[in-house]
Design goal:
Protein name: L-rhamnose isomerase / sugar isomerase
CATH superfamily: Divalent-metal-dependent TIM barrel enzymes
Domain Xylose isomerase-like TIM barrel: 100-285
Radius of gyration: 22 Å
Order of helices and strands: HHEHEHEEHEEHEEHEHEHEHHHHHH
Structural class: alpha/beta
Organism: Pedobacter westerhofensis
Largest sheet: 6 strands, parallel
Pfam families: AP_endonuc_2
Shape: globular
Bound molecules: 6-deoxy-beta-L-fructofuranose, manganese (II) ion
Number of strands: 11
Low-confidence stretches: none
Keywords: Isomerase, Manganese, Metal-binding
Strand order of the largest sheet: 4-5-7-9-10-11
CATH topology: TIM Barrel
């Protein structure tokens, strides 16, 4: 199924009068609105191929029907999202959950939907059916060099596939760690992982980056070999200039100050990419902004501040991606909500009066500092985000139009009710 321009136009027409009224009020309140809109239009958030099916928990999975059965159908689904919001112009693949075969055909399908290939994700946290050695006790950290080599080779193969598709980054997330005290020699595990990553790093093409994603716990519950931003930064620093830390919002211990982590990684030039999601307890992978919208805003506040300080382009300087997927929502509606929440937080962060904040900080005027941040956070920026979307050719209200066009019903009619997308 494809969404046609005339369908978007008809929907936009219906909502035009209300939007114009809201937008003119928002524009009258903010002198920098045009500058903000031009940034929003450029800002694209990659969709992970594994979020297009209903996510499972370790207790079960309830398929919603019409899920993509192949990489081609995943690209088509992201094409639908991008048509609606014009902010989801990239796909991130997970190998071997995705199996690209005909690279040229895949590339032209993606181009047809105006999508580019974001970071490639390797997978050494599961055993595949045809795999010789098991990752039960880790992959890049494993005590047996043969297992490490198998995992290294897999990562190099993922780079090769990414090159064929036109990607330019590899994300390595390792489940490696231990479940019980004494199981692992921490230093040996670190050294093995570093040596393995060095071999992968050596295989990176010139313009490529590698993102080292950290996670505090799960599936290992005593130690994780890339457990926090300090450890990720150690690997990235030892590896060299093409290696960066990747921050997944759900991968921290409770109450971690993620915005401070982001700020310092940016200062060090080592923040490479983001996995957006939200959580209440652990790596819940809930819709971005659904639990802690203020935290999301504070993170964007640091991102905008830190990127501007270094002259980094907001749209292209970091890898922006969603990593959310769960059990109860239609995954496409969920992704539209995540993208919208990210755009809202980004807009609010762009509205912060930075010059005034710097003065208030310098004067230790704590009350004023809070007022400045919360003034931006409490601004209703939805009409500004909508205006940016409309100017790019997107829908006024993406979720509403998705429902009006009965997209899910159409996908079920085409693909069937009992479909299971590869992924979590
Ligand atoms: C691990 C993780 C990582 C994986 C994805 C499926 O929790 O965040 O990014 O690749 O989930
Ligand atoms: Mn992640
Ligand atoms: Mn995760």
């Amino acid at each position: 199924m494809e969404i046609e321009k005339y369908q978007i136009d008809a929907h936009n027409e219906k909502l035009d009068a209300t939007h114009k009224q809201r937008f003119s009020f928002a524009a009258s309140e903010n002198a920098r609105v045009e500058e903000v809109i031009s940034k929003l239009i450029k800002f694209q958030i990659a969709i992970p191929s594994w979020a297009l099916g209903t996510g499972g928990t370790r207790f079960g999975r309830f398929s919603g029907g019409g899920e993509p059965r192949s990489l081609e159908e995943k690209i088509e689904d992201i094409g639908l999202l991008h048509k609606l919001n014009q902010s989801s112009g990239a796909i991130s693949l997970h190998i071997p959950w995705d199996i690209p075969t005909d690279y040229d055909a895949i590339k032209s399908l993606a181009a047809h939907h105006n999508l580019r290939f974001d970071a490639m994700n390797s997978n050494t946290f599961q055993d595949q059916a045809d795999q010789k050695l098991s990752y039960k006790f880790g992959s890049l950290q494993h005590v047996d060099k043969a297992v490490r080599q198998q995992a290294i080779d897999h990562n190099i193969e993922v780079i090769r596939q990414g090159v064929a598709l036109g990607s330019d980054a590899l994300t390595v997330w390792l489940a490696d760690g231990s479940c019980f005290p004494g199981q692992l020699n921490f230093r040996k595990a670190f050294q093995n992982t570093l040596e393995s990553l060095e071999e992968i790093y050596a295989a990176l093409p010139d313009a490529w980056k590698v993102f080292v994603e950290y996670k505090a716990f799960e599936p290992n519950f005593y130690s994780t070999t890339v457990g926090d931003w300090g450890q990720s930064l150690l690997y990235a620093s030892k590896l060299g200039p093409k290696a960066y830390t990747l921050v997944d919002l759900g991968h921290h211990l409770p109450n971690a100050n993620i915005e401070q982590i982001v700020s310092l990684l940016l200062m060090e030039g080592k923040l490479g990419g983001f996995h957006f999601n939200d959580s209440k307890y652990g790596d819940d992978d809930l819709t971005a902004g659904s639990m802690k919208p203020y935290q999301l805003f504070l993170i964007f506040n640091e991102l905008v501040d830190g990127m501007d300080a270094k002259g980094i382009d907001h749209a292209t300087g970091l890898g922006w991606m969603i990593d959310a997927s769960h059990n109860v929502k239609d995954p496409l509606e969920d992704l539209l909500q995540s993208v919208d929440a990210i755009m809202i937080s980004y807009t609010q962060a762009l509205l912060v009066d930075r010059a005034a904040l710097t003065v208030a900080q310098q004067e230790n005027d704590v009350v004023r500092c809070q007022e400045i941040l919360q003034d931006a956070f409490r601004t209703d920026v939805r009409a500004i985000v909508q205006e940016a979307r409309l100017r790019s050719g997107g829908a006024a209200q993406p979720v509403q139009l998705y429902r009006e066009l009965k997209v899910r019903e159409n996908l079920i009619a085409n693909r069937g009710l009992k479909t299971v997308a590869t992924g979590l």
